[in-house]
Amino acid sequence: MRQGRAYRSCVALAVVLLVLAADPGVARAATLSLSGVVFYDRNDNGVRDPGEPGVPGLRIRHGSGRVVTTTGGDGGYSVSGLPAFGALVVETGWLRSQCPAAGRASAITCPRGPGRDNDFAVDNQFIGYPLTGASSATGVDVGLLPDWPGPGLLPPLSGGAVPANPVDVAARLSWTESECAGGGLHICRAGDTFRLAAQVYNQGTTPLSGIQAVLSVPAGDCLTGLQLVGAGTSPAVTGMTSSAYSCDSRTVNVALAGTLVPGGAALIAVDGRTVAGPGTPGCRIDAIDPGTCTVAEPQGRGWLFAVTHLDQPGDADSAFCNPVPATMCPTGVHDKRRSPDEVDPVGHNVDAALGGSTAYNLQGHLALAGGTVRRGAALTLRAWVSDSGAGAVNQAPPGATVVLYLPPGSRILSVPDRHILLDCITQPGPQVSCRYRGPLSPGLAAIAVDVTAVVPDTWPAGVPYRPVLCAIAPPAAVAETLPAAACGPGTVAAGTASDNDADLNLVVP
Predict the structure, then answer these.
(1) Strand partners, 306
(2) What three-state secondary structure class fits 361?
(3) Confidence band (pLDDT; 50, 70, 90) for 11?
(4) Could you tell me if 212 and 264 are in contact, meaning their C-beta atoms sit under 8 angstroms apart?
(5) Fewer CB in a 10 Å sphere around the end CB: N or C, the chain?
(6) Are 422 and 449 in contact (CB under 8 A)?
(7) Which domain holds residue 470?
(8) Which residues pair with 386 in a beta bridge?
(9) Domains contained in the chain, number
(10) ∠ at Cα 407 (405, 413), nearest 5°?
């Protein structure tokens, strides 16, 4: 899954995101007036060149949320009364230009400089310009890029510019604050309250309307409140509605009214409470057992937020998983630079005193994600694993592996880049083996493994092109509730008693 503790520290509720500690030596009475332009840095060089338009409708504020303005039609802004401490924050669904640097493709943070528009740091896509020591004579320009097509974490150049996805929505769900104890492990007891930030981003270049999403609430937790946060939402989003919910609700539908401008963001505050077990084994407030209490999110209990509909067709990342429950949909990673990026989980641990369990069950999934099924053509296969099951199911242990076997003669073009939560290697066969580094939350799915391969030129017409997926538990782990059967390139999933395997019968015309 895609949230580790580093991700939690990077993303929080917009009104407290990227608040830099105030310098005690700075007089709090001092204020600043700043102006600049937020622009579309088409060639990713950190400088606003001719023909690079401004990006309108983006929120700009002080890190405390006390001063808020919006970029105008030309991308320009001017804000006065800024405290001379903390940070000037730009809330954006686009990526900062020149970020990440070559060799740091999996980084989710970007250092300052070089370039006038890069005199700020960024966590994920939230930009923070330090105000301590700044002067009102400073112009703060910000170069941004929309998301781009393709599997890589670094933007390609085409004709001297970074290509953009015209339609691209992304979701993010983040742990914000709580009464839960347990430090970074977020161990919650019965009755503890907490707040999550559910965010929707327009990562493409087309205004988005008709945005619908679903919030999945795990058993044992209670949803107590949903509220659209104006200070963290593009002003063209005019409101939010949701289906009725109670502590028994496991799924809540959400709809945004108005339009989400390119680069814009919408923020929904999600309030919840822990009401029951099971607890995460080893996660006790009074005595944490590091051998069994997991240290990587998602943890013992996972929430999920997923965009399920847009009025605009053609999102490059996914078909929104409408035919199946969102909890079974594969996810990307939390920095929004992998597909699918419109499904995002976040998790927490529950005190083992509420009743722990080591039960888990891996389930393998395989789908055709894109391309053409014909001889000599490239197609993209999406493989992933979920931790499913009934009753007191807990997180699957870290180290679960998904192996994708491709038919003989296939040529592999791309596999996911190495990431802190996923490591893939290509092996003879041909096959791709990917190891998940974090545990899988109960009832949720894992990072999507997108593999692009070429169908052999000599593949016989009418003969199924049949890739096979095998989900493998770590060797030293507790046995699954439904153990895996023997699995390999010749496995027919319908003929085994296990749910760890999956296959596709793709007919080549």
Answers:
(1) 214, 343
(2) coil
(3) very low
(4) no
(5) C
(6) yes
(7) 362-507
(8) 363, 445
(9) 3
(10) 75
